[in-house]
């Protein structure tokens, strides 16, 4: 079993495997959507390689691509799912 | 099949002409080799703007902006029409003098505008950097999402009986119509070549060059943040860049999208005919943008893309009969202003074709100025 770290997703404390992507952490935590489109529809990571921009979330206050960013201890992730 | 008129190309120009001719009761067929409102139309910024550096362009763009305002109420929501107006930004006293001259030229075409000083500029657009001299506000200008507007014009034309054939190219003009790439032929006494940058593929002597441009759009800012711009913002140095020499140029040109996103333009270059994005030019675009709007640096870029402006040697579009070939009409070469001028172009071409009174002087746009002496075009 690999090491886990503590992060927060939408205000909830969760433990996830160290070194995974933010998008993977969000999925592991059972959060379905990363963001909402202009029409308010939920969107989630799609391409997993930094192209589609569907995985946008806020990481420690800054906009980031969930599939490209890696989790770090104490990280605060906010989706608008 | 026989029609009254065949239009080659369903960019914003072809769609606007189809709409005008169908409204006049003509049997129209539009042939589009790709998709409706793709090509330059989809790449464009969709700023509906009166440009005054050439009297002919001023007449065409002023007339066209008036037509867009009249159409606005009818456009579907997806067209994103907004009466943002334009703010031409003067960095220093010299550029403010240029703004005053611009105001006089616009007034001659009946276009209202207002000089704003430095303090008024800061109040209108708080995100602009401090220390700018002022600018010229043109309230009648607007923005639109060009591919959606083109699609609307196409639908309206279709509802009046125009036929759209998409996914097949016109291979050649036959003298009494067109030959399609799939072997079909269509016949009409008038063929209108409205295929933008591709016009020389069908009419060899038409002097159109592709002028590449880069645009970039940001993501939406977090809910509750003030928009970074309220008007379309352009530096007064823009016209120098737009009509300047052949080299690369970058000018500050920012559009607030209805979603809060910022659309950032624009670059101009002739020598590059590939569609790929050049990171060096995107960097220059961003530097220029941040120089005027420092907080732009806090937004994320969502996408960058390129498009090609169909450019003529004298920067005026070609609208009217092409003398070397019977039945061939041109409506192409709209350069960086074709979304705006599509509606004026359509009215002018329809009036010429139907022998009706012209909405404005057609002579500056007469394709005859580039027609070769011998009928070899
Ligand atoms: C980066 C950029 C920013 C711009 N910003 C603005 C702006 O803010 N405001 C403004 O007014 N203008 C702007 N423009 C200019 C504007 O986009 C163009 O002038 C306008 O879209 C030209 O329209 P068009 O219909 O002539 O050409 P296009 O939109 O290129 O349409 C031509 C169509 O013809 C089709 N075609 C070609 N060959 C054939 C064939 N053989 N058979 C069948 N179909 C064919 C193509 O597939 C295409 O769909 C901008 C342009 C660029 C590149
Ligand atoms: S999932 Fe496509 S950019 Fe992240």
Automatic annotation (TrEMBL), chain A:
<dbReference type="Pfam" id="PF13510">
    <property type="entry name" value="Fer2_4"/>
</dbReference>
<dbReference type="InterPro" id="IPR001041">
    <property type="entry name" value="2Fe-2S_ferredoxin-type"/>
</dbReference>
<dbReference type="InterPro" id="IPR042204">
    <property type="entry name" value="2Fe-2S-bd_N"/>
</dbReference>
<dbReference type="GO" id="GO:0051536">
    <property type="term" value="F:iron-sulfur cluster binding"/>
</dbReference>
<dbReference type="GO" id="GO:0016491">
    <property type="term" value="F:oxidoreductase activity"/>
</dbReference>
<protein>
    <submittedName>
        <fullName>(2Fe-2S)-binding protein</fullName>
    </submittedName>
</protein>
<dbReference type="InterPro" id="IPR036010">
    <property type="entry name" value="2Fe-2S_ferredoxin-like_sf"/>
</dbReference>
<keyword id="KW-0560">Oxidoreductase</keyword>
<feature type="domain" description="2Fe-2S ferredoxin-type">
    <location>
        <begin position="3"/>
        <end position="81"/>
    </location>
</feature>
UniProtKB/TrEMBL annotation, chain B:
<feature type="domain" description="FAD dependent oxidoreductase">
    <location>
        <begin position="4"/>
        <end position="351"/>
    </location>
</feature>
<dbReference type="InterPro" id="IPR006076">
    <property type="entry name" value="FAD-dep_OxRdtase"/>
</dbReference>
<keyword id="KW-0560">Oxidoreductase</keyword>
<protein>
    <submittedName>
        <fullName>FAD-dependent oxidoreductase</fullName>
    </submittedName>
</protein>
<dbReference type="InterPro" id="IPR036188">
    <property type="entry name" value="FAD/NAD-bd_sf"/>
</dbReference>
<dbReference type="Pfam" id="PF01266">
    <property type="entry name" value="DAO"/>
</dbReference>
<dbReference type="GO" id="GO:0005737">
    <property type="term" value="C:cytoplasm"/>
</dbReference>
<dbReference type="GO" id="GO:0016491">
    <property type="term" value="F:oxidoreductase activity"/>
</dbReference>
């Amino acid at each position: 079993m690999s090491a886990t770290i503590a992060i927060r997703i939408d205000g909830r404390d969760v433990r996830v495997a160290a070194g995974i992507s933010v998008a993977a952490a969000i999925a592991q935590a059972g959060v379905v959507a990363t963001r909402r489109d202009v029409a308010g529809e939920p969107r989630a990571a799609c391409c997993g390689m930094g192209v589609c921009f569907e995985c946008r979330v806020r990481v420690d206050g800054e906009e980031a691509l969930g599939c490209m960013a890696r989790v770090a201890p104490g990280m605060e992730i906010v989706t608008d799912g | 099949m026989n029609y009254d008129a065949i239009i080659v190309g369903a960019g914003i120009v072809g769609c606007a002409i189809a709409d005008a001719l169908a409204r006049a009761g003509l049997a129209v067929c539009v042939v589009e080799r790709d998709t409706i409102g793709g090509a330059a139309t989809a790449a464009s910024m969709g700023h509906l703007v009166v440009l005054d550096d050439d009297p002919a362009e001023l007449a065409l763009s002023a007339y066209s902006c008036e037509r867009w305002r009249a159409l606005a109420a009818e456009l579907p929501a997806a067209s994103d029409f907004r009466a943002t107006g334009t703010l031409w930004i003067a960095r220093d006293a010299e550029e403010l003098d240029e703004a005053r001259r611009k105001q006089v030229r616009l007034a001659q075409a009946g276009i209202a505008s207002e000089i704003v000083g430095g303090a008024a500029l800061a109040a209108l657009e708080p995100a602009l950097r401090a220390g700018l001299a002022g600018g010229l506000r043109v309230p009648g200008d607007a923005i639109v999402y060009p591919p959606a507007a083109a699609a609307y014009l196409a639908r309206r034309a279709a509802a009046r009986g125009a036929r759209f054939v998409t996914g097949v190219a016109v291979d050649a003009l036959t003298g009494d119509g067109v030959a399609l790439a799939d072997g079909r032929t269509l016949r009409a006494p008038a063929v209108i070549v409205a295929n933008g940058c591709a016009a020389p593929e069908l009419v060899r002597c038409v002097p159109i060059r592709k002028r590449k441009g880069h645009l970039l759009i940001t993501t939406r800012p977090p809910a509750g943040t003030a928009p970074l711009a309220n008007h379309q913002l352009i530096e007064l140095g823009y016209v120098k860049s737009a009509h300047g020499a052949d080299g690369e140029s970058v000018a500050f040109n920012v559009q607030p999208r209805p979603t809060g996103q910022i659309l950032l333009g624009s670059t101009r270059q002739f020598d590059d005919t590939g569609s790929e994005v050049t990171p060096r030019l995107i960097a220059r675009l961003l530097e220029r943008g941040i120089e005027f709007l420092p907080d732009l640096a806090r937004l994320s870029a969502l996408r960058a893309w390129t498009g090609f402006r169909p450019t003529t040697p004298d920067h005026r579009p070609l609208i009217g009969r092409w003398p070397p070939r019977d039945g061939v009409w041109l409506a192409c070469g709209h350069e960086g202003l074709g979304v705006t001028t599509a509606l004026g172009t359509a009215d002018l071409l329809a009036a010429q074709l139907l022998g009706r009174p012209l909405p404005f002087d057609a002579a500056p746009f007469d394709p005859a100025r580039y027609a070769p002496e011998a009928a070899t075009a």
